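pipeline/complex-builder :: batch 7 item 3
reading input block
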Amino acid sequence: MEIATRRLAEALPGQTIEGVLTPGINVLKTFDPPLSALDGASFTGVRRRGKLLLLDADTASHGPLTLLVHLMSAGRLMLYDKRGSLRDRTSRVLIRLPEDRELRLREFGTKQAAWIKLLTPEGLEAEPALETLGPEAWPSPPELGELLSSNRPLHSLLRDQQVITGIGRTWVDEILHAAKLSPFKRGDDLSEKEAAALREAMVSELGRVLDVYEAKVKLPLPEKFPKPTRVHAHQGEPCPRCETVLEAVFYEDYVMSYCPHCQTEGRILKDRRLSRLLK
Ligand SMILES: [Zn+2]
Protein backbone atom coordinates (compact mmCIF):
# COMPACT_ATOMS: atom_id res chain seq x y z
CA MET A 1 0.00 0.00 0.00
CA GLU A 2 2.90 2.33 0.65
CA ILE A 3 3.90 2.49 -3.00
CA ALA A 4 0.29 2.83 -4.19
CA THR A 5 -0.10 5.70 -1.74
CA ARG A 6 3.02 7.41 -3.06
CA ARG A 7 1.96 7.09 -6.69
CA LEU A 8 -1.58 8.30 -6.06
CA ALA A 9 -0.31 11.14 -3.87
CA GLU A 10 1.68 12.35 -6.88
CA ALA A 11 -1.33 12.20 -9.19
CA LEU A 12 -4.59 12.90 -7.34
CA PRO A 13 -4.33 16.09 -5.28
CA GLY A 14 -6.01 18.97 -7.14
CA GLN A 15 -8.07 16.61 -9.30
CA THR A 16 -11.81 17.24 -9.37
CA ILE A 17 -14.12 14.32 -8.74
CA GLU A 18 -16.85 14.28 -11.39
CA GLY A 19 -18.77 11.46 -9.79
CA VAL A 20 -18.49 8.17 -7.94
CA LEU A 21 -20.19 4.92 -8.92
CA THR A 22 -20.25 1.74 -6.85
CA PRO A 23 -21.06 -1.23 -9.07
CA GLY A 24 -19.81 -3.48 -6.26
CA ILE A 25 -22.80 -4.45 -4.14
CA ASN A 26 -22.24 -3.67 -0.46
CA VAL A 27 -18.82 -2.15 -1.05
CA LEU A 28 -19.90 1.14 0.57
CA LYS A 29 -20.17 0.67 4.33
CA THR A 30 -21.46 4.14 5.27
CA PHE A 31 -24.49 6.18 4.15
CA ASP A 32 -24.02 9.52 5.92
CA PRO A 33 -22.56 11.67 4.47
CA PRO A 34 -23.82 10.32 1.12
CA LEU A 35 -21.36 9.35 -1.58
CA SER A 36 -22.85 12.11 -3.76
CA ALA A 37 -21.17 14.61 -1.40
CA LEU A 38 -18.02 13.85 -3.41
CA ASP A 39 -19.52 15.10 -6.68
CA GLY A 40 -17.52 18.16 -7.70
CA ALA A 41 -15.12 17.82 -4.76
CA SER A 42 -11.39 17.92 -5.26
CA PHE A 43 -8.78 15.59 -3.85
CA THR A 44 -6.52 17.23 -1.29
CA GLY A 45 -4.28 14.35 -0.26
CA VAL A 46 -3.56 10.63 -0.17
CA ARG A 47 -2.39 8.94 3.02
CA ARG A 48 -1.85 5.42 4.29
CA ARG A 49 -2.36 3.85 7.68
CA GLY A 50 -1.48 0.14 7.85
CA LYS A 51 -3.13 -1.47 4.84
CA LEU A 52 -5.79 1.22 4.65
CA LEU A 53 -5.72 4.03 2.15
CA LEU A 54 -7.13 7.45 3.01
CA LEU A 55 -8.23 9.68 0.14
CA ASP A 56 -8.89 13.19 1.43
CA ALA A 57 -11.24 15.52 -0.45
CA ASP A 58 -12.66 18.95 0.00
CA THR A 59 -16.40 18.98 -0.67
CA ALA A 60 -18.79 21.89 -1.19
CA SER A 61 -21.64 20.45 0.87
CA HIS A 62 -19.84 18.71 3.75
CA GLY A 63 -16.40 20.31 4.03
CA PRO A 64 -13.41 17.98 4.29
CA LEU A 65 -14.24 14.28 3.94
CA THR A 66 -12.09 11.17 3.73
CA LEU A 67 -12.74 8.12 1.63
CA LEU A 68 -11.28 5.22 3.59
CA VAL A 69 -10.39 2.25 1.38
CA HIS A 70 -9.56 -1.30 2.43
CA LEU A 71 -8.59 -3.48 -0.51
CA MET A 72 -8.46 -6.69 1.59
CA SER A 73 -6.45 -9.39 -0.17
CA ALA A 74 -7.81 -9.35 -3.70
CA GLY A 75 -8.61 -5.69 -4.27
CA ARG A 76 -6.55 -3.36 -6.46
CA LEU A 77 -6.74 0.34 -6.96
CA MET A 78 -5.73 1.65 -10.37
CA LEU A 79 -5.69 5.04 -12.00
CA TYR A 80 -6.65 4.72 -15.65
CA ASP A 81 -6.49 7.25 -18.46
CA LYS A 82 -9.70 5.82 -19.90
CA ARG A 83 -12.94 4.85 -18.23
CA GLY A 84 -13.65 1.15 -18.01
CA SER A 85 -16.62 -0.80 -19.28
CA LEU A 86 -19.51 -0.93 -16.84
CA ARG A 87 -19.72 -4.61 -17.60
CA ASP A 88 -16.33 -5.25 -15.98
CA ARG A 89 -17.32 -7.62 -13.20
CA THR A 90 -14.22 -6.83 -11.16
CA SER A 91 -15.25 -3.18 -10.72
CA ARG A 92 -16.27 -2.23 -7.18
CA VAL A 93 -15.84 1.56 -7.14
CA LEU A 94 -15.36 3.98 -10.04
CA ILE A 95 -14.21 7.50 -9.26
CA ARG A 96 -14.54 9.61 -12.36
CA LEU A 97 -12.00 12.32 -12.94
CA PRO A 98 -11.66 14.96 -15.67
CA GLU A 99 -10.47 14.08 -19.18
CA ASP A 100 -11.95 10.60 -19.07
CA ARG A 101 -9.59 9.45 -16.31
CA GLU A 102 -10.84 7.05 -13.66
CA LEU A 103 -9.64 5.78 -10.31
CA ARG A 104 -10.97 2.27 -10.19
CA LEU A 105 -11.19 -0.18 -7.33
CA ARG A 106 -11.22 -3.66 -8.81
CA GLU A 107 -11.38 -6.95 -6.99
CA PHE A 108 -10.31 -10.26 -8.38
CA GLY A 109 -11.72 -13.63 -7.39
CA THR A 110 -15.21 -14.50 -6.27
CA LYS A 111 -15.32 -12.86 -2.84
CA GLN A 112 -16.48 -9.27 -2.35
CA ALA A 113 -14.41 -8.30 0.66
CA ALA A 114 -12.94 -4.91 -0.25
CA TRP A 115 -14.80 -1.95 1.23
CA ILE A 116 -14.91 1.83 1.38
CA LYS A 117 -16.29 4.30 3.91
CA LEU A 118 -16.91 8.00 3.44
CA LEU A 119 -16.11 9.72 6.74
CA THR A 120 -16.12 13.16 8.29
CA PRO A 121 -13.01 14.14 10.32
CA GLU A 122 -14.90 13.07 13.49
CA GLY A 123 -15.97 9.82 11.90
CA LEU A 124 -12.39 9.13 10.90
CA GLU A 125 -11.22 9.77 14.44
CA ALA A 126 -13.65 7.20 15.81
CA GLU A 127 -13.18 4.64 13.00
CA PRO A 128 -12.54 1.20 14.59
CA ALA A 129 -10.53 -0.09 11.61
CA LEU A 130 -7.97 2.64 12.31
CA GLU A 131 -8.28 2.89 16.07
CA THR A 132 -7.20 -0.69 16.71
CA LEU A 133 -4.09 -0.58 14.53
CA GLY A 134 -0.71 -1.00 16.20
CA PRO A 135 2.29 1.24 15.42
CA GLU A 136 3.69 1.22 11.87
CA ALA A 137 6.46 -1.28 11.12
CA TRP A 138 8.11 1.15 8.72
CA PRO A 139 9.99 3.50 8.63
CA SER A 140 10.57 3.80 12.37
CA PRO A 141 8.87 1.18 14.53
CA PRO A 142 9.05 1.51 18.33
CA GLU A 143 11.35 -0.66 20.44
CA LEU A 144 10.05 -4.20 20.08
CA GLY A 145 10.86 -5.72 23.47
CA GLU A 146 7.73 -4.60 25.24
CA LEU A 147 5.55 -4.43 22.14
CA LEU A 148 6.03 -8.14 21.43
CA SER A 149 6.00 -9.38 25.03
CA SER A 150 3.45 -12.11 24.53
CA ASN A 151 3.77 -15.87 24.47
CA ARG A 152 2.63 -16.05 20.85
CA PRO A 153 5.13 -17.09 18.16
CA LEU A 154 6.82 -14.29 16.22
CA HIS A 155 5.38 -15.48 12.92
CA SER A 156 1.86 -14.80 14.16
CA LEU A 157 2.65 -11.75 16.33
CA LEU A 158 4.36 -9.81 13.57
CA ARG A 159 1.42 -10.29 11.19
CA ASP A 160 -1.10 -9.14 13.78
CA GLN A 161 -2.01 -5.62 12.62
CA GLN A 162 -3.19 -4.72 16.12
CA VAL A 163 0.29 -5.46 17.49
CA ILE A 164 2.30 -3.88 14.68
CA THR A 165 0.92 -2.80 11.33
CA GLY A 166 2.28 -3.20 7.81
CA ILE A 167 3.74 -6.73 7.71
CA GLY A 168 2.00 -9.48 5.75
CA ARG A 169 2.72 -13.16 5.39
CA THR A 170 5.28 -12.63 2.62
CA TRP A 171 7.54 -10.11 4.32
CA VAL A 172 7.41 -11.70 7.76
CA ASP A 173 9.50 -14.59 6.38
CA GLU A 174 12.06 -12.19 4.92
CA ILE A 175 12.26 -10.20 8.16
CA LEU A 176 12.68 -13.23 10.43
CA HIS A 177 15.34 -14.66 8.14
CA ALA A 178 17.22 -11.36 8.08
CA ALA A 179 17.06 -11.24 11.90
CA LYS A 180 18.10 -14.94 12.16
CA LEU A 181 15.12 -15.72 14.36
CA SER A 182 12.90 -18.78 14.41
CA PRO A 183 9.31 -18.12 13.30
CA PHE A 184 8.18 -20.13 16.34
CA LYS A 185 10.19 -18.22 18.91
CA ARG A 186 7.84 -16.63 21.46
CA GLY A 187 7.62 -12.84 21.58
CA ASP A 188 8.36 -12.78 25.32
CA ASP A 189 11.40 -14.99 24.79
CA LEU A 190 13.37 -12.33 22.85
CA SER A 191 16.60 -11.06 24.37
CA GLU A 192 17.28 -7.35 24.16
CA LYS A 193 19.80 -8.02 21.42
CA GLU A 194 17.35 -10.16 19.43
CA ALA A 195 14.62 -7.54 19.74
CA ALA A 196 17.02 -4.92 18.41
CA ALA A 197 18.08 -7.20 15.52
CA LEU A 198 14.44 -7.86 14.66
CA ARG A 199 13.66 -4.16 14.62
CA GLU A 200 16.63 -3.47 12.38
CA ALA A 201 15.63 -6.32 10.02
CA MET A 202 12.08 -4.95 9.86
CA VAL A 203 13.24 -1.51 8.78
CA SER A 204 15.85 -2.76 6.31
CA GLU A 205 13.75 -5.51 4.68
CA LEU A 206 10.67 -3.33 4.21
CA GLY A 207 12.97 -0.57 2.98
CA ARG A 208 14.58 -2.96 0.49
CA VAL A 209 11.19 -3.97 -0.89
CA LEU A 210 10.06 -0.36 -1.18
CA ASP A 211 13.23 0.54 -3.08
CA VAL A 212 12.34 -2.13 -5.65
CA TYR A 213 8.75 -0.89 -5.84
CA GLU A 214 9.94 2.69 -6.14
CA ALA A 215 11.97 1.74 -9.22
CA LYS A 216 9.42 -0.58 -10.84
CA VAL A 217 5.87 0.43 -9.93
CA LYS A 218 4.28 3.06 -12.14
CA LEU A 219 0.76 4.34 -12.77
CA PRO A 220 -1.86 3.11 -13.54
CA LEU A 221 -0.56 0.68 -10.85
CA PRO A 222 -0.17 -2.99 -11.71
CA GLU A 223 -2.59 -5.83 -11.09
CA LYS A 224 0.32 -7.85 -9.77
CA PHE A 225 3.15 -6.22 -7.85
CA PRO A 226 6.67 -7.60 -8.12
CA LYS A 227 7.68 -9.68 -5.10
CA PRO A 228 11.39 -9.29 -4.45
CA THR A 229 11.54 -12.25 -2.05
CA ARG A 230 14.64 -14.22 -1.13
CA VAL A 231 13.17 -16.67 1.36
CA HIS A 232 9.37 -16.66 1.30
CA ALA A 233 8.13 -19.50 -0.95
CA HIS A 234 11.73 -20.30 -1.92
CA GLN A 235 11.74 -23.64 -0.07
CA GLY A 236 13.96 -26.21 -1.77
CA GLU A 237 16.35 -23.48 -2.90
CA PRO A 238 19.63 -22.55 -1.18
CA CYS A 239 19.54 -19.99 1.63
CA PRO A 240 20.86 -16.67 0.26
CA ARG A 241 23.10 -16.39 3.32
CA CYS A 242 24.46 -19.89 4.08
CA GLU A 243 23.25 -22.03 1.14
CA THR A 244 21.48 -24.56 3.36
CA VAL A 245 18.33 -25.75 1.61
CA LEU A 246 15.37 -23.62 2.74
CA GLU A 247 12.48 -25.47 4.38
CA ALA A 248 8.81 -24.59 4.74
CA VAL A 249 5.73 -25.26 6.81
CA PHE A 250 2.54 -25.40 4.74
CA TYR A 251 -0.71 -24.06 6.10
CA GLU A 252 -4.13 -24.17 4.53
CA ASP A 253 -3.68 -21.04 2.42
CA TYR A 254 -0.10 -19.93 2.83
CA VAL A 255 3.42 -21.12 3.30
CA MET A 256 6.03 -20.17 5.90
CA SER A 257 9.60 -20.52 4.66
CA TYR A 258 12.78 -20.48 6.75
CA CYS A 259 16.42 -21.53 6.84
CA PRO A 260 17.10 -24.33 9.34
CA HIS A 261 20.75 -23.31 9.69
CA CYS A 262 20.22 -19.55 10.17
CA GLN A 263 16.96 -19.63 12.11
CA THR A 264 16.11 -22.87 13.92
CA GLU A 265 19.48 -24.32 15.04
CA GLY A 266 19.20 -27.01 12.41
CA ARG A 267 15.76 -28.16 13.44
CA ILE A 268 13.25 -28.91 10.70
CA LEU A 269 9.89 -27.64 11.86
CA LYS A 270 6.87 -29.85 11.49
CA ASP A 271 5.24 -29.68 8.11
CA ARG A 272 1.55 -29.51 9.00
CA ARG A 273 0.36 -30.46 5.55
CA LEU A 274 2.41 -33.63 5.65
CA SER A 275 1.36 -34.55 9.17
CA ARG A 276 -2.26 -34.10 8.19
CA LEU A 277 -1.83 -36.41 5.22
CA LEU A 278 -0.22 -39.04 7.40
CA LYS A 279 -3.01 -39.09 9.99
ZN1 LIG B 1 20.80 -19.83 6.01
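note: The mean pLDDT is 93.
queue -> next item
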